[in-house]
C-alpha cells in the first residue's frame, strides 16, 4: 500500500513537472510571438518621438496638433506617442505625411473619440488615414453617434477611414454601430484588433488581413433588417481586393447577423480558422440589395468552429474552401506583407 501510494506520488510529480515544463515552453513560444509596442518600435528603428499628453505633460495635448507638426513629405519613421486618455477630436493623417507610427498605451487606455453621423461616410469618420506607411498600436477609435432608426437609418457613423496603401493596426479597437470600419483601399493588416458594430461594419475595397481579431456584433434597434459584418465591394474579377479573417472570433448580442453581403459583383470575403458564435444566421451570406448574379461572389469559409459555422443552410453560392484553395489567402503574401509590414504572424 505504502509502495503503491509513493509510486502514485512519483507519477503525479512527473506529470506535474512535465506539465510545468511544457507550459513554460508554450508560454515562451507565445511570449515571443506577442507583437508589442517595444517590438514595433525596435523594428521601425527611429528616435523621433512626439508625445501627446492630455494632461499637458507632453509636447502636445491634441493628437491632430502632433500630426500637424510632422513635416510634409516626411520620409523617416516618426513616433507619435498618444498617452493614456480620451482625446475628443477628429484626427486626419493627410496624404503627404507617410511614416507615422501612432502608439497608444493600450486600446483600453488611449482613445480618439468623436460623435458624428452623416450621409457621407468619409465626413463622419472620427479617424482618417490617407497617408501610406502608417502604423497604429494600442489605441481605440470610436464614433459615439447615437444609434437606432431615428439616427442612422440613412446616415453612417464611421470610426476609422483607412484610405491608403500599407497601413497596419496592432491591438487597436474600432467602435461604432453603422459602418464602423471603412476599409476603403490599399493593403492593410489588422492584428489582434477589436471591431464592433451592427450593420455593414467592415466595408470597402481594401485588400486586408484581419489576424486574430475579435469581431463583436451589437444588436440594432431595427427589427426587420439583419445586419451584416462585412460589405466588401470588389467590383471586377481583376480587382485584387478582399477581406481575409484568419483566427480570432465573431460573436455578439442581440439580433443575428450575416457574415457578409454582396456589395460588389465580385465581393470577396474569407473567414478561416475562426470561431463563429450563434449570432451568425444559418444562411451566412446575403445578396440583399444586390440584383446581379451570385456566381461571381467569393463568400467563403475554411475550418471555422462554433455554432455559427454550421455549413448546412448556407446560401447556395457560399463556398467551403479546401486547404489548397485557402492557401493564397492565409499567406501574408496576399497583402505582400513581407515587403512592408514591420511584424506579422
Ligand atoms: C537620431 O538618429 C539620427 C540618425 O540615426 C542621429 O544622427 C541622431 O544623432 C539621433 N539623435 C538622437 C537624439 O539620438
Ligand atoms: C445625417 O447627415 C446629414 C448630412 O450628411 C446631417 O446634416 C444630419 O445631421 C445627420 N443626421 C443625424 C441624425 O445625425
Ligand atoms: C439571392 O439569394 C436568394 C436566397 O438565397 C436566392 O433565392 C436568389 O436566387 C439569389 N439571387 C440570385 C440572383 O442568385
Automatic annotation (TrEMBL):
Q: InterPro entries in the record, alphabetically?
A: Pectin_lyas_fold (IPR012334), Pectin_lyase_fold/virulence (IPR011050), Pectinesterase_Asp_AS (IPR033131), Pectinesterase_cat (IPR000070)
The chain positions of domain Pectinesterase catalytic read 52-337
Q: Which UniProt keywords apply?
A: Aspartyl esterase, Cell wall, Glycoprotein, Hydrolase, Secreted
- Report which reactions are catalysed by this protein: [(1->4)-alpha-D-galacturonosyl methyl ester](n) + n H2O = [(1->4)-alpha-D-galacturonosyl](n) + n methanol + n H(+)
Protein's UniProt keywords contain Secreted: yes
One of its GO biological process terms is: cell wall modification
What's the domain of life for this entry? Eukaryota
Pathway, per record: Glycan metabolism; pectin degradation; 2-dehydro-3-deoxy-D-gluconate from pectin: step 1/5
The reply on keyword Secreted is: yes
Specify the signal sequence span: none
Similarity comment? Belongs to the pectinesterase family.
The protein's name? Pectinesterase
Give the species this sequence originates from. Malus domestica
Q: What is the lineage of its organism?
A: Eukaryota, Viridiplantae, Streptophyta, Embryophyta, Tracheophyta
Amino acid at each position: 500500500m505504502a509502495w503503491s501510494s509513493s509510486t502514485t506520488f512519483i507519477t503525479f510529480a512527473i506529470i506535474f513537472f512535465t506539465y510545468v515544463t511544457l507550459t513554460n515552453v508554450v508560454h515562451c513560444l507565445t511570449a515571443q510571438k506577442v507583437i508589442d509596442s517595444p517590438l514595433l518600435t525596435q523594428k521601425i528603428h527611429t528616435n523621433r518621438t512626439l508625445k501627446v499628453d492630455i494632461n499637458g505633460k507632453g509636447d502636445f495635448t491634441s493628437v491632430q496638433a502632433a500630426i500637424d507638426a510632422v513635416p510634409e513629405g516626411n520620409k523617416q519613421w516618426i513616433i507619435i506617442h498618444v498617452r493614456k486618455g480620451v482625446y475628443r477630436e477628429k484626427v486626419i493623417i493627410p496624404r503627404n505625411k507617410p511614416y507615422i507610427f501612432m502608439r497608444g498605451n493600450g486600446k483600453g487606455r488611449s482613445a480618439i473619440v468623436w460623435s458624428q453621423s452623416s450621409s457621407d461616410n468619409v465626413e463622419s469618420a472620427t479617424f482618417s488615414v490617407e497617408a501610406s506607411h502608417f502604423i497604429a498600436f494600442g489605441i481605440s477609435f470610436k464614433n459615439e453617434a447615437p444609434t437606432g432608426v431615428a439616427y442612422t437609418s440613412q446616415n453612417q457613423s464611421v470610426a476609422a477611414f483607412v484610405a491608403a496603401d500599407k497601413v497596419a493596426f496592432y491591438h487597436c479597437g474600432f467602435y461604432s454601430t453603422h459602418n464602423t470600419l471603412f476599409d476603403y483601399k490599399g493593403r492593410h493588416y489588422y492584428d489582434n484588433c477589436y471591431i464592433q458594430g451592427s450593420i455593414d461594419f467592415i466595408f470597402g475595397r481594401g485588400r486586408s488581413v484581419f489576424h486574430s481579431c475579435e469581431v463583436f456584433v451589437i444588436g440594432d434597434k431595427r427589427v426587420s433588417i439583419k445586419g451584416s459584418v462585412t460589405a466588401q465591394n470588389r467590383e471586377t474579377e481583376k480587382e485584387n481586393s478582399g477581406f481575409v479573417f484568419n483566427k480570432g472570433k465573431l460573436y455578439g448580442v442581440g439580433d443575428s447577423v450575416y457574415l457578409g453581403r454582396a456589395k460588389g459583383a465580385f465581393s470577396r470575403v474569407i473567414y478561416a480558422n475562426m470561431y463563429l458564435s450563434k449570432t451568425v444566421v444559418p444562411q451566412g451570406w446575403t445578396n440583399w440589395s444586390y440584383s446581379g448574379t451570385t456566381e461571381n461572389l467569393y463568400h467563403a469559409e475554411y475550418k471555422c468552429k462554433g455554432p455559427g459555422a454550421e455549413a448546412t443552410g448556407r446560401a447556395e453560392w457560399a463556398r467551403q474552401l479546401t486547404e489548397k484553395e485557402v492557401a493564397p489567402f492565409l499567406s501574408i503574401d496576399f497583402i505582400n506583407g513581407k515587403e512592408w509590414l514591420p511584424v506579422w504572424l
